[in-house]
Amino acid sequence: MNFYGSNDIFQIHRATPSDVVTLARLHVDAFNETHGPGPSYEVRYQQWNQIFRDKSPSWFCLVIKTQSGDLVGFAKGQPYDHSDHADYRGELNKIYLLKKYQKMGLGRRLLCQCAEEFRKLGITSFLLFGDAINPSNEFYERMGGRKLYAQNGAFHGGYGWDTLDSLIGTVNQRSNLT
């Protein structure tokens, strides 16, 4: 799917094994921008290679690509079947966008496309777990995410979407940007 953001044309598509090298680099760069130093490129490369080698049909990874072919954001989703927050059937366990590309509507597009991918998997609700003090938390709330609290009442950075309808409706309304 092509769309405009600022003056650039972007495309969101499912990641493929040919994206592993650039996806691993993007993962390192975006993680470090968000959280500080983390796992190395070699570690991320091994992780992504393993994920694609397993070939499980129950997960997806979407990437945002610039017109020149650079990856600038990604999200990975999978089924969720833990007893904590058992009402949620999907988990968005990674979502990153390089800071240079934030505040352009790309995160919204990516999150909405993830909702569509969950729907394709027969999943009608999802959650994500992040950092409780991450500036992105405000974004999740604006996008309709509901704060999830631990049994002791503490907030640890989890957000849930009980239905995908509002997110899918947003991506369908915005698809005329191309």
Protein model, in words:
With 178 residues, the protein is an alpha+beta fold. Helices cover 35% and strands 28% of the residues. It contains five helices and eight strands, in the order E-E-H-H-E-E-E-H-E-H-E-E-H. The protein has helices spanning 20-35, 41-54, 106-120, 136-142, 165-174; strands spanning 2-5, 8-14, 60-66, 71-79, 90-97, 126-129, 146-149, 155-161. The chain has an eight-stranded mixed β-sheet with strand order 1-2-3-4-5-6-8-7. Strand 7 (146-149) and strand 8 (155-161) form a beta hairpin. The longest helix is centred in the N-terminal third of the chain and has 16 residues, at 20-35. 33% of the residues are buried.
List SSEs in N-to-C order: EEHHEEEHEHEEH
Oligomer category: single chain
Q: State which percent range the strand residues make up.
A: 25-35%
| Number of β-strand runs | 8
Residues in helices, as a percent range:
25-40%
Envelope shape: globular
Low-confidence runs: 172-178
Instruction: Please give the largest β-sheet.
Output: 8 strands, mixed
Number of helices: 5
Please state the structural category.
alpha+beta
- End-to-end separation: 8 Å
Strand order in space, largest sheet: 1-2-3-4-5-6-8-7
Whole-number mean pLDDT: 89
Radius of gyration: 16 Å
Keywords for this structure?
178 residues, alpha+beta, eight-stranded mixed beta sheet, 5 helices, disordered C terminus
